[in-house]
Amino acid sequence: MHNNKNMEIHVENVTRVEGHGIIDVEIKNGEVTKCLWKIPETARFFEAMVRGRRYDEIAGITSRVCGICSIGHHTASQKATENAFGITISPQTEKFRKLLMHAENFQSHILHTLYLVLPDLLGMKSVVEVAMACPEEAKIVTRLHGLGNEMSALIGGRATHPITSIIGGFTKLPSEKELADMRKKLLNSLNDYFAIVELLGKIAEKIPVFTRETEYISLKNNTDYAILNGNLYSSDNEFYNNADYRNVMNEFCVPHSTAKFTKNLRASFMVGALARFNNNYAMIRPLARSIAEKLGLKAPCHNPFMNSVAQVIETAHSIEDSIVLIQEILEEGIKKECLRDIYGKADAVIKAGEGIGMVEVPRGLLIHNYKYDEKGKVIEANCVIPTNMNHWNIQHDLEKLVPELLAQEKTKEEIQLACEMNVRAYDPCISCSVHEMRLVNMDWK
Amino acid sequence: MAKPKVAIFSMACCAGCALQIVNLEEKILDLVGAIDVVEWQEGLSEKSGGNYDIAIIEGSIVTEKEAEELRKIRQTAKIVIAIGACAHTGGINCLGNHMSVEEKKSIVYDGDAGKIDGLKDAIQPRPLNAIIKVDAVVPGCPINKNELVEAVKCLLLGKKFRLPDYPVCFECALKENGCLFDLDIICLGPITRAGCEAACPSINKECNGCRGWVDDPNQNAAKDILEKYGLSIEDIKKRFEIFNAYKTEIMEKKNA
């Protein structure tokens, strides 16, 4: 018996995601007549903010696109500026930057999977309810999250909006003892991490079974599970030249969204932990691989709800890779860099030009692109944010998901929850996606 | 006694200040025991809809809709705390105010701006106190999470929450840091309100003034520093703009 022939689902705004997004579904006589993922988030016009500003201020401004992935924005921005001026960084700086990226990945993945997604899997309303019902697990969660932040602060100077990382290097590095202590803490955190994996293993069947194959885009390289370096890669078309990114993003606007949407070879594409897992599984660290086997995630996986599971697996990768990186740094010994040299590095080579910086942040591929004048001031700027790339993929998921659930005679409440869970699975960062930047009339090489 | 009802709201910003509440880590478990968080879109599914003892608000106001929402919160909240530079000074959001709203829309969205619903009521970004009365401010980009806990404690006890009334240089000197001006780096420590424990200069990075101007900056001392290092007031002003463009805008209007 169909009790769902007519229904309206209007969720304004979806909770437990960053920013403001609306799900709008209308079903008449058993037919889906409307199904929209809308973004009413207010625009912040970063393009206007950075125009005319000096190169050494830009990362500090554009990192404010997002508080949760501020380290990723900061790093992508620095890479773009270094690329424009032809600045190379030392292998040691490269390692510390990678550690910083891992710290953010660790913190953000724990935040998303355990604070925001876990309540759904436990049938609860919020992490507060989880904390009341399972105080021991709540302590583990805050300990893990705290360690990610502690590592960010150790390398970057603080948990959110890094301080020490500047164009060309770091203004301050941790001591060898501090690094050795951090390594020990990371090793010890594995017990907490395994406890979480145990817990998730028990409730994993609550993750909706849903399949929609799409195009998966990420960075990829031959040396590691690409986070800091790599080339644009699509699961449908292999490698692209990074300078051609605009032809992969194909940004477009729709009336119901202040965020721009993107598409490439298919109707939409996906970025983020699942896209990276699918594209770079061969490069993931052994511990992460064993967790993937334990949680039953195989590459390629076409269930977007599994993005949260991929995040849990990537957390193991970040912990293990950080332990290895710290070991390498300690074996080589930290080389002291002269502060005046680092600060002077860019000043000596300022020139008119353009640069692109790409990194993988917790939510996926992030692109910063600036054009500078001969005094090192920004003429034009562009950022493409992972959540922008995922919005259109969420739209296409919902269009497949709603009719499927309707056919299974699910109730309105069940359909609404599944739609919300789908949005949440992408870990959207909506204020990021409405940051807005855009280049106009630029002469692209 | 019923637990005080606290609501957390995000206006236009990076959400990094609300994140500092999560970053209290295990302390947040204690906090949740002492107060009742009744509304927080990014953390809870429930929405309570009014009568807050404290409303904690991050972000600037950049649309008419947000301004309206802010006025409604003010009507129903006993105490309003502005957290972070965006809410306090307008923050980096005001850095683009040298362009008109229409200009900004056209650069970013080309010809599409007119057809996007969410852009119709965009206004020039401004801090909360340009629209409503704010009872307390926790400054910074991002905020110092311990300062927020102090502010909430003070206000719940009926005390006034006071910020330090001396510049960052004072805290920096107490830590016996070297001065960044000696490396030819422009630092806003001399005029910026302390309370961050000189977070940036202590790790060799200049202060960019995210906590706003100290109440009564020692202008003579600041001028002496500029003279000593061969800098002009313009150099400092340009830097100060990053987090305080709204204040600069207002001052320029007054002087015009």
Write structural notes for this entry.
- Chain A is of the alpha+beta class and 445 residues long.
- Chain A has one domain (46-433): Cytochrome-c3 Hydrogenase, chain B, CATH 1.10.645.10.
- Chain A is built from 15 helices and twelve strands.
- In chain A, a hairpin with a 2-residue loop joins strand 2 (22-28) and strand 3 (31-38).
- The longest helix of chain A has 31 residues, at 91-121.
- Chain A is globular.
- Chain B has two domains: 5-156, Rossmann fold (3-Layer(aba) Sandwich); 168-249, no CATH class.
- In chain B, strands 2-1-3-5-7 form a five-stranded parallel β-sheet. In chain B, strands 4-6 form a two-stranded antiparallel ribbon.
- The model of chain B has no long low-confidence stretch (mean pLDDT 90).
- Chains A and B meet through helix 1, helix 2, helix 4, helix 5 and helix 6 of A and helix 1, helix 2 and helix 5 of B.
Compact overview of the structure:
Chain A has helices spanning 46-50, 55-62, 70-85, 91-121, 127-133, 135-156, 176-203, 245-249, 273-280, 286-295, 307-332, 339-347, 386-407, 412-425, 430-433, and strands at 7-12, 22-28, 31-38, 165-166, 169-170, 215-220, 231-234, 238-239, 269-270, 353-361, 364-372, 378-384. Chain A is of the alpha+beta class.
Output the radius of gyration of chain B: 20 Å
DSSP strand content of chain B: 5-15%
Approximate helicity band of chain A:
40-55%
Structurally, how many domains make up the residues of chain A? 1
What key attributes describe this structure?
heterodimer; A: 445 residues; alpha+beta; Cytochrome-c3 Hydrogenase, chain B; 4-stranded mixed β-sheet; 3-stranded antiparallel β-sheet; 15 helices; 12 strands; B: 256 residues; alpha/beta; Rossmann fold; 5-stranded parallel β-sheet; two-stranded antiparallel sheet; 37% helix
Topology at a glance:
The complex is a heterodimer of chains A (445) and B (256).
Chain A: E1 7-12, E2 22-28, E3 31-38, H1 46-50, H2 55-62, H3 70-85, H4 91-121, H5 127-133, H6 135-156, E4 165-166, E5 169-170, H7 176-203, E6 215-220, E7 231-234, E8 238-239, H8 245-249, E9 269-270, H9 273-280, H10 286-295, H11 307-332, H12 339-347, E10 353-361, E11 364-372, E12 378-384, H13 386-407, H14 412-425, H15 430-433
Parallel strand pairs in A: 6-9
Antiparallel strand pairs in A: 1-2, 2-3, 4-5, 6-7, 7-8, 10-11, 11-12
Chain B: E1 5-10, H1 16-22, H2 26-34, E2 36-40, E3 52-58, E4 61-63, H3 64-76, E5 77-83, H4 84-88, H5 101-109, E6 122-126, E7 136-138, H6 145-156, H7 168-174, H8 219-228, H9 233-255
Parallel strand pairs in B: 1-2, 1-3, 3-5, 5-7
Antiparallel strand pairs in B: 4-6
